[in-house]
Amino acid sequence: MLFMISTVRRDPSQWCLMATLQVAEGAPDLPAILADLDFDFRLERTPSPAGVVWFNLLVDARRGHRRCARIAHRLLNALHSIAKCGDLPDFRIIAGERWLHSPLPDDAMQPIESHSHGSPSESP
Question: Phi then psi for 40, rounded to 5 degrees?
Answer without folding.
Answer: -85, 80
